[in-house]
Design brief:
The protein is of the alpha/beta class. It folds into two domains: about 15-235, TIM Barrel (Alpha-Beta Barrel), CATH 3.20.20; about 240-340, no CATH class. Helices cover about 45% and strands about 15% of the residues. The protein has helices spanning about 15-20, 30-35, 40, 45-50, 65-70, 95-105, 125-145, 165-175, 195-205, 220-230, 240-245, 275-280, 285-290, 295-320, 325-340, and strands at about 25-30, 55-60, 70-75, 80-85, 90-95, 110, 155-160, 180-185, 215, 235, 250, 255. It has a seven-stranded parallel sheet. The chain has a three-stranded antiparallel sheet with strand order 3-4-5. Strand 4 (about 80-85) and strand 5 form a beta hairpin.
Amino acid sequence: MPVGTAASVKALTPEELRAVGAQIILGNTYHLYLRPGCDVIQRFSGLHRFMNWEGPILTDSGGFQVFSLAKLAKITETGVTFQSHIDGSSHLLTPEKAIEIQFGLGADIVMCLDNCISYPARREDARQALENTSHWAARCKKKWQTGDNGHHALYGIVQGGMFKDLRARSAEDLLRIGFNGYAMGGLSVGEPTEVMLEMADFTLALLPDSRPKYIMGVGTPANLIELVALGADMFDCVLPTRNARNGQLFSHDGTMNICNARFKDDTGPIDADCRCYTCRNYSRAYLRHLYLARELLSYRLNTIHNLHHFLSLMQQVRRAIIADEFEILRENFYASKKEKNA
């Protein structure tokens, strides 16, 4: 899912998102609640009309943003009291409030409010966070049941830090409550890749195959391949869009920094195997020039390419799974990297 935190996938129009293969995008409760505010969005009956996006939208509950952005956040059993990072105003985000906001945003997939923690975290902090997350999940489910639950799917979020027994407790709590889908939070927050994959492998096996399994905030193309192999179904990450704006582009050869001097006279596309709009029409030399000149078109063309790269990879993954050829795709993915880097 491309990340459209503030009702916009940065630099692209909805038409361009559809052209690169996006089927669903992500918005964020925390950001949209603070700006432009729910009253504005509800004038348009939700995000779809507000941002002119006809496809599905998943909204993050805001738990991670309260943890990472808000000033003076205080967590209690009731919820999270925090000061806005925009103007310092004080707010209380409860599980019920998080669901109300997401209903108002018109999200197709609604996330429970969870208690995020940093890495590394003490066991006691991880335990308290999972207890808050489980308690809040039950309240979110109750609030969701009073709304239009025929339209909004509700996902619970597994927490527990990097402790397997706590992850197991969290998953057990959520399964007892019952959700349309299950997400794993608290990964890709600074831990080594091997630890992230170990936690994902352990936790994904605890969740039912009959429900979508969503890894939040991940990751690189290699991360996606490995997590699909472990049983994950859904992903979001700012990596392709943020890195595009910073001049890092993804290709079948690996990553490249378009500002490098070796691209000054390069007449070729970013990726000869790519059929995105950018690669069909523009050279590395031109893209380098745009980036160094800080032209706004640089962000747009780079983002088109990176999102196309990620989304086409996932299209290939889906086709391979259907054809029972995923392991072949996985082997070819790494073989091509080794061959081109040899």
